[in-house]
Amino acid sequence: MRVRAVPLLVVIVLWGSGLGTFAEPNPYRRIAGRAQPGRGPQRGSRVGVEGPASNWTLPRTAWGDPDLSGTWNYATMTPLERPQGLAGKSVFTDEEAAAFERQTIERQSVTNNTAGPDWWDPGTRHLMNRRTSLILDPPDGRLPPQTKDAMARAAARAETRRAHGIGEGPEDLGLNERCLQWSIAGPPMLPGVYNNNVQFFQFRDYVVIFNEMIHDARIVPMDGRPRGNVQRWMGEARGRWAADTLVVDTINFTDKTNFRGSGEHLHLIERFTRVRDDTVEYEFTAEDPTTWTRPWTASISLTKTEGPVFEYACHEGNARSVEGILRGARTQDGR
């Protein structure tokens, strides 16, 4: 059961401290997660990624920055990596997309053990602009090969799991099991079966990126301040504007964050570009020379949605569930 409450504490703190002023709200309608017919790749854009709409004026804050404020949804059925059987195909035909969606829904209805279909985001029922992968580069839509160091780390983790089973203590459990971090919230943000909403709050010197999943809030300084050397679950972010694109540059991740096998040397660059009233193009590039043989880039369309973002009550530490997991593990191993 999800306990729901509007999570505005971080915004109230920033407002009260005088760090900035909210961008003017705009009366947007809810947009369905599925790409509208005929709304495929725009002229001058990459395959399956929308470019700026014609005859459209980018809304701006009172101080002149592009206005990203509000709530956006990034749910989609499109997988991160292109399935092996679709080599060389970046976009489905209409008929192929319909068949893929139908087969995926049928498979998920019997194999997905995360909550139930009534929890699933409607956007997960459809592909994004008929694309076969979120990864744009490499062109094959697949993650780059891993380095020898990354493969050795993965083998060591697997051996530890075999040797210790579920775990000797809470530190052996995954960050998501302890409600510390979920890949859906990121960074980078990746679609999941539910809780795919993100809300932006803009100030002159800060941008707050607030995710519905596990109610994580990233407070991104925009004033060019130097970084520290403290590693964090979500890294240490710095933001800037490159023309009309918000660029968020993040380093100082922990070695436990483990995004797709990455380690503490992960360097993440995210780009948010509003291309129409109802769409923000979100693109990220991940680089870790100890994990992948080259950087790689993925892109997701965020669609405008109405309504508040409710708390996802996965409380930090997840004490009751973790206690049950560890009690069960001790029962299994006879202790």
What does this structure look like?
This protein has 4 helices and 10 strands, in the order H-E-H-E-H-E-E-E-E-E-E-E-E-H. The protein has helices at 9-16, 94-111, 148-164, 319-332; strands at 70-73, 135-137, 197-202, 206-211, 217-221, 236-242, 245-251, 267-276, 279-287, 296-305. The protein has a domain at 9-23 and 136-193 and 202-332. Strands 1, 2, 3, 4, 5, 6, 7, 8, 9 and 10 form a 10-stranded antiparallel beta sheet that branches. A hairpin with an 8-residue loop joins strand 9 and strand 10. With 335 residues, the protein is α+β, with helices and mostly antiparallel strands. 17% of the residues lie in helices and 20% in strands.
Low-confidence stretches: 1-45
Q: Which structural class best describes the helix and strand composition?
A: alpha+beta
The separation of the N and C termini measures: 31 Å
Q: What fraction of residues sit in β-strands?
A: 15-25%
Helical residue percent band: 10-25%
Q: Give the SSE order as H and E letters.
A: HEHEHEEEEEEEEH
Q: Mean pLDDT, as a whole number?
A: 83
Alpha-carbon Rg, integer: 21 Å
Q: So what's the overall shape?
A: globular
Sheet having the most strands: 10 strands, antiparallel
- How many individual β-strands? 10
Structural topology:
Blueprint: H1 9-16, E1 70-73, H2 94-111, E2 135-137, H3 148-164, E3 197-202, E4 206-211, E5 217-221, E6 236-242, E7 245-251, E8 267-276, E9 279-287, E10 296-305, H4 319-332
Antiparallel strand pairs: 1-3, 1-10, 2-10, 3-4, 4-5, 6-7, 7-8, 8-9, 9-10
